[in-house]
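@channel sequence for tomorrow's demo:
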Amino acid sequence: MRTRFILLYILFSLLISCSDNHFRQFDILPEEQRWLATDEKVYEFDIENDAQRYNIIFQFSHIYGYQFAAIPLNVSIKSPDGKTEEITLDLKIADDTGKQLAECSGDVCDLFYIIKEKTKLQKGNYKITVSNNFEGPYLPNVIGLGLAVENVK
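structure tokens (generated this afternoon):
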């Protein structure tokens, strides 16, 4: 099953590489498929063209039939001028009827959440940190986590 996840990830990465991404990072979690409460995901990237607009997108990959309807997340965006923006959100996994919101292929589901849409980013280095605020020691059945920064035309 682990091999299947890796093959799906490679295929997904090849498809994404053809798009207009400025930055993309996806981390596959260990075989236990647990996102530990202490495991902050850190993404760093540079913006060289501050005349463009960008979408900042968080990717949450999980097992089909996820047991939670929403997941509390904390997002911290540190900009080149040293300012930090803190965002708290509930990542909806299912709608009010219980229908999964992710794109699923077999038992692997990818949910893409736009953190910032069509936003101007100043030139320089950015650091985005994402952590879960789940009540337990870990969030179960998580395959991987990622962040993409896309150029918007």
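heads up for whoever presents: The chain has one domain: 2-152.
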